[in-house]
Design goal:
With 349 residues, the chain is of the alpha+beta class. The chain has ten helices and eleven strands. The mean pLDDT is 96. The structure holds 1,4-dihydronicotinamide adenine dinucleotide. The site of 1,4-dihydronicotinamide adenine dinucleotide has 25 residues, from β7 and α9.
């Protein structure tokens, strides 16, 4: 089913409002999800609404949160999100970080006690559209083995970065620190297809190509991805006084309780370090340079990081977004689930 951005936004916002979210918060969540879908990052788009709606309905997302800011220094602040929708707190915290960075050159803003906040590219692009560099990281459910381990400890702890080029162009890089997202394993299960044995491990910690035997995901590049996950968990969890490692709440454990997750935004104003116009020109130049690198066998062109999704975004802006029928059918229905996700074991077959 192909839908326009506007229609998808309306469907998501209506469903979340029906579940109990205020219209203003539902609109922000819809913005972030549509941003993901329009870029082709469907794992963090409308398909999440079913779960979000159940959590809202069960009280695990505070629909009337009291956001409080603590300005802890000239360049640092912490927003307590009171376990409201993570998207709303993360967006507001980035607006705050942008203001601090414009004043002081750099901002580090922690977001404490929030729910899932979706695709982090949304927040770093807020900064880049203001002519600033944005970096954002966050905690997520423990489902990844540490290098050499057989039990999950860290989450898929993503890292996102965006910087402004000339005009309205941006470079956006946004990745989970796991080889593949959990959604890709579910997809392989639904099709009864084998997965590459570099994605995940079974209950003994051995690499597996059977999606039904998956017990935990693997970090990117072995010990290096493992180290990145550790950095993300320290900076967006321990630094903010939050539960860390395997103590981080799991997405489905108890939908009646807030998740207490952490996120950290870092924003840099390039004009405090170099000439802004030269910076922006050189960002555009680096994008061009990368596109002009001789492609390897099997590749038509080298894309700059994130360009694959920039291309999809342009196509979807023009032609509409392809949403899988099940997701569309759910959005247009009156259904809010009461017990589909609560206490669900993400690894259960
Ligand atoms: P991915 O593996 O699809 O892409 C990772 C990065 O590589 C992207 O920036 C992408 O544009 C770039 N890329 C991929 N192919 C490329 C190519 N051929 N040329 C140039 N660049 C290329 O993304 P992943 O790791 O599956 O993450 C998806 C989303 O999940 C992200 O938005 C992330 O923020 C989100 N996420 C959110 C979490 C949360 O708890 N809020 C947890 C984990 C992930």
């Amino acid at each position: 089913m192909k839908v326009t951005k506007q229609k998808l936004h309306k469907l998501i916002s209506t469903k979340l409002t029906r579940a109990g979210l205020t219209t203003s918060h539902a609109d922000v969540v819809a913005d972030v999800l549509v941003h993901a879908d329009v870029r082709g990052v469907h794992s963090h788009g409308a398909m999440r609404v079913e779960y979000y709606a159940e959590r809202i309905e069960k009280g695990g997302t505070n629909v009337n949160p009291n956001f409080t800011y603590e300005q802890t220094g000239p360049c640092s602040a912490v927003l307590d999100g009171d376990n409201g929708a993570g998207h709303v707190a993360a967006k507001q915290a980035m607006e705050h970080a942008v203001n601090i960075a414009k004043e002081n050159g750099i901002a580090i803003v922690g977001v404490r006690r929030i729910g899932h906040s979706g695709a982090l590219s949304y927040y770093v692009q807020q900064a880049a559209r203001e002519g600033l560099i944005g970096l954002s990281i966050c905690q997520s459910d423990p489902m990844v083995v540490p290098f050499g381990g057989a039990e999950p400890y860290y989450g898929t702890n993503p890292i996102a970065f965006a910087a402004p080029g000339e005009g309205s162009s941006l470079i956006t890089f946004d990745m989970a620190t796991t080889v593949q997202a959990w959604g890709k394993i579910l997809h392989a299960r639904s099709k009864h297809e084998a997965i590459p044995d570099t994605w995940a491990v079974d209950k003994n910690g051995a690499n597996t190509s059977d999606p039904f035997q998956v017990h935990a995901l693997l970090p990117i590049a072995g010990p290096k991805g493992y180290g990145l996950m550790m950095m993300v968990d320290i900076l967006s969890g321990i630094l903010l006084g939050l539960p860390f490692g395997s103590r981080v709440s799991s997405m489905y454990n108890d939908l009646t309780e807030g998740r207490n997750l952490g996120q950290l935004h870092i924003v840099i104003d390039p004009s405090f370090f170099t000439d802004l116009e030269t910076f922006r020109r050189n960002i555009t130049q680096t994008m061009r340079d990368l596109n002009n690198i001789k492609p390897a066998p099997g590749f038509d062109q080298v894309l700059y990081p994130g360009q694959n999704y920039d291309i999809i975004e342009q196509e979807n802006e023009a032609n509409g977004i392809e949403i899988v029928d099940e997701v569309y059918d759910y959005l247009v229905s009156d259904v809010i689930h009461h017990n589909k996700y609560n206490h669900k074991d993400p690894f259960a077959t």
